Amino acid sequence: MTSRRPLHIYCDFDGTITMKDNIIELMNTYAPKEAKTIIQQVLTKDVPIQDGVGRLFSFLPSSRQKEFRQHLVSTATIRPGFEELIGYCQTEEIPLTIVSGGIDFFIYPILAGFVSIDDIYCNEADFSHEKIRIIWPYTCDSACQNECGCCKPSIIRKIGQSHEKVIVIGDSVTDIEAAKLADLTLSCGKVLSDECQSLGLPYKDFHSFHEVIHILEKEWIPI
């Protein structure tokens, strides 16, 4: 049997683990019309992610923190097969790290019971001012100048091991830089798939995490 390098999976949250992007959901529900322009500028990469996300949350009053959290927790839908993927990774001893440009105040409660907080890398919210301010614990390292906010490639470089194969799971612009470091990207969004195709990066499309498990079983895990 040919030995294979162990895997490390880095999985996005908004639009990947959840069926929709929770930041966009929050802005569409509570922010003024100007937010839609900023969202579009981020998606088209005309505005850096860190700048755009920071500006979006500056529209929202800190006093409504509980309401915002409850809205997102009650409306978020977990993509089918995620719980099974967690079990599969535990059985096969594959590290599963959540890397997200989302914010702790809604990611933690949505993922409660699924993933340990220690395995989640995301941005943080400061509610001590009149409007919400975003804190960036995982900004770009010296190898990245894209103002990612939560810089996924920097996290991969920091916690990954040289002997590991990197699997990136995502859907959109926040996953493109990470995809450039991946041995394989699994995409559930047209934006990321189109970018991978344009850049010649190895990728496969999926709709449910059941498909992700099938891909891992078929291509990466020895029988």
Automatic annotation (TrEMBL):
The protein's enzyme class: hydrolase
Biological process terms in GO annotation: L-methionine salvage from methylthioadenosine
Catalytic activity: 2-hydroxy-5-methylsulfanyl-3-oxopent-1-enyl phosphate + H2O = 1,2-dihydroxy-5-(methylsulfanyl)pent-1-en-3-one + phosphate
InterPro entries: HAD-like_hydrolase_phosphatase, HAD-like_sf, HAD-SF_hydro_IB_MtnX, HAD_hydro_PyrdxlP_Pase-like, HAD_sf
EC number(s) reported in the record: 3.1.3.87
A Pfam entry, by short name: HAD
Entry coiled-coil feature ranges: none
Protein name: 2-hydroxy-3-keto-5-methylthiopentenyl-1-phosphate phosphatase
Biological source species: Bacillus coahuilensis p1.1.43
Record lineage: Bacteria, Bacillati, Bacillota, Bacilli, Bacillales
